[in-house]
Amino acid sequence: MSRRRPVQRAGRVMAAGAIGLLAAGCLPAGATAEGRDIGTLYLGVNIVAAAVGVFVAVLITFSVLRFRRRADGDALPAQTRGNLGLEIVWTVIPTVIVAGLFVATVAVLTRVDSTEATPGAELDVTAFRWGWTFEYPGEDVAVSGIGVPGPVVVVPVDEPVRMTLRSSDVIHSLMIPQFLFKRDVNPGHVNVIQFTVEEPGDYGGQCAEFCGIYHSQMPFTLRAVERAEYDAWLAEEREAVAVEPASERP
Amino acid sequence: MAVVTHAAPAPAERPTILTWLSTTDHKRIGLLYLTASFLFFLFGGLLALVIRSELAVPGLQLVDEEGYNQLFTMHGTIMMLLFATPAAAGLANYLIPLQVGAADMVFPRLNALSFWLFLFGGLIVLSGYLTASGPADVGWTGYAPNSRLPYSTTIGTDLWIVGLALTGVASILGAINFVSTIYTRRAPGMSMLRLPVFAWTILVMSALILFSFPALTGALVMLLLDRRFGAAFFDPSQGGSEILWQHLFWFFGHPEVYIVALPFFGVISEIIPVFSRKPIFGYRFLVLATILIGAYSFTVWAHHMFTTGAVSGPFFSIATFIIAVPTGIKFFNWIGTIWGGRLSFDVPMLWAIGFLYLFLTGGLTGVILGSPPLDFALHDTYYVVAHFHGVLVGGSVFALFGALYFWFPKMTGRRLSERLGKMHFWSWLAGFSLTFFVQYQLGASGMARRYADYPADAGWTGMNLLSTAGSYLLGLGTIPFLVAVVLALRRPADQPADPWEANSLEWATSSPPPHHNFTSIPPIRSERPVFDARMAARAGPEVTPS
């Protein structure tokens, strides 16, 4: 009958859509050691999720097409009410899968959240409506900026960088997409994050937690440079501060 | 099958405006809920179209930043709290007394109060549009301290707080009514394990409302005290906590996700058996899975807060993973129902099948987001936007449309046009896929949500344009539905008691049912009394091989 063909076509379109979706959503390569771990976990989890998704989508498509009503349509099919064995199978298998995901998650989470290594650079970060201040405690250096394009903060490459995050007003969130990472910057609860940038370069940063009218306009740039260049930059900044009398300090 | 005509209601019962304003009949209140929530849905949908139009290309074309913030705040608030929640309440209001074989809800006046509190609460939220500074601009999540003074100065935010508190009370009163009705008004023979799955999902939904909405109401009152009466619940500089708001909000907010999902799982569990001509597969497991999802839903709230750095990642991660298991059980039981059936693809079934595919994508990406390291990358990006629209639109809204096509004959005595229904379904399936699937990639490549603009050189313009085109298709695709409703209502009522050969008790009475629902009730010996009665009638003297 002619009205069945669209159903078949539709089934194929839907299955293709589901598979296409699961292949999408690719993250950029993480530019930090931690980001690389996150990217690897993301890839692994996505392979599992895609396998499950494709399996279920194919199962739906197959059963929808296979069991459509045919010419002898009025006879009642077998009135199956359930199957204990199947219920156990499709309870146990997903449980095992999510247990595996959990183990992998905790392993990566522990590494990403670790602040144990001695940092090569320590920064105090203050977010405010709508900009950022990055201070280098003990170095007498700070960079600050509001709006677009925002401040440029310099850190050394290949060394752990520790940032202590505080907000002077509402909740913000420090997000660096290429690090595959963000962490909220709270007015009360202080967060400490640590990461190691692996490639020198400029990385765009932004606010990820809605913080009012100009939430979309508080970017910054994180510039990762070699140690020598970093030291030179710090010295240069210190000098600039020493030349100008520190008028803003109380 | 012969066309059974039912006597039209006596002319004396002809409803007037006053009838509707003063009604305590659960069916009328259900229709009021459905109509009002659908109007809110249309308004929220228009806001979404403005959002998508603004994001179609880089730069600010239609609104400024403040206008954009108000748009997504009102869109989210309306869709979650003025549409999805009351739409579920509307279906439940109409169906629960019918499904359990009762004449009405236990507390009909309380029921009416719930509706009017919801309606006026909603109108108060929207009344921000009438103020000079416009409606609330704090996001539907209203994170403090951004929602405190001096940060959100618009009076619309105060109206948002007060209005939502009222709708919260409405939900709580409604939940009390549903629980009481299901517990105490079941017809003889209707044991708990013969309740239709939809009724079970409403029971669990009501329990979730009773335990979670008070947290929202409390948080809203605290926020109002902070804003207008000098309190400092959410101000860390005065001993308050900014994290507290998030705990309270999500302690409500995650059960809320299941409050607007479970009833629609129930809808799917009603539609699929009817159009597969089989009983629901694994009834007891579905019920158990529903209860487990309800219970677990109180243990996952802080997966919305992984990036705060103030919650236990492992605990809320494993809790989130575990809740996927009973959800998966439901999935396999739905497929098990289809398996071996004789499927017909009437419009309600199309929506149910569409639901299976789309909810699958939303569910799987939810598991991905439940892993804290991955959430660090994806939180507050369009990936999350795509995920929750997968669950709430691909899931709940698709199921709601299925429900409307399925129960419209029961509610009105008229059937919605198949042809318009199919146009509606296919344009929504295509529109949904276009709008939201690209947003996973947008989010993964770092496009943050709640931004009025994005850079022209980010490589996102094409995907955003596609997403916007999809949203227009969703908007246009809604028109056939509205036309179908108008056309159907202009025709005389002609539907028999049981037009679909369905299972549960609401199909044992006329379409629409009389004021007190039933003149007689068939014996209830399973969760499919109407099916049993149909079989008994066929096994009787006149066996017609069609």
Question: How would you describe this protein?
Answer:
Chain A is an alpha+beta fold. Chain A folds into two domains: 2-68 and 83-113, no CATH class; 121-243, Cupredoxins -  blue copper proteins (Immunoglobulin-like, Sandwich), CATH 2.60.40. Chain A contains four helices and ten strands, in the order H-H-H-E-E-E-E-E-E-E-E-E-E-H. Chain A has helices at residues 5-23, 33-66, 84-113, 227-243, and strands at 121-128, 131-136, 141-146, 152-156, 160-167, 172-176, 181-185, 191-196, 201-207, 220-225. Chain A is elongated. Mean pLDDT of chain A is 88; it is low at 246-250. With 546 residues, chain B is mainly alpha-helical. Chain B has three domains: 16-260, Up-down Bundle (Cytochrome C Oxidase, Chain A); 302-492, Cytochrome c oxidase-like, subunit I domain (Cytochrome C Oxidase, Chain A, Up-down Bundle); 496-537, no CATH class. Chain B has helices at residues 17-22, 26-55, 65-100, 108-126, 155-184, 197-228, 242-259, 262-276, 283-296, 313-338, 347-369, 372-378, 382-412, 418-444, 461-490, 529-539. In chain B, helix 11 packs parallel to helix 14 (418-444). The longest helix of chain B is centred in the first third of the chain and has 36 residues, at 65-100. At the A-B interface, helix 1, helix 2, helix 3 and strand 7 of A face helix 3, helix 9, helix 10, helix 11 and helix 12 of B.
Highlighted features:
heterodimer, A: 250 residues, alpha+beta, Immunoglobulin-like, 2 domains, five-stranded mixed beta sheet, 4 helices, elongated, B: 546 residues, mainly alpha, Cytochrome C Oxidase, Chain A, 0% strand, globular, disordered N terminus
Fold blueprint:
The complex is a heterodimer of chains A (250) and B (546).
Chain A: H1 5-23, H2 33-66, H3 84-113, E1 121-128, E2 131-136, E3 141-146, E4 152-156, E5 160-167, E6 172-176, E7 181-185, E8 191-196, E9 201-207, E10 220-225, H4 227-243
Parallel strand pairs in A: 1-5, 4-10
Antiparallel strand pairs in A: 1-2, 2-3, 5-8, 6-7, 6-9, 9-10
Chain B: H1 17-22, H2 26-55, H3 65-100, H4 108-126, H5 155-184, H6 197-228, H7 242-259, H8 262-276, H9 283-296, H10 313-338, H11 347-369, H12 372-378, H13 382-412, H14 418-444, H15 461-490, H16 529-539
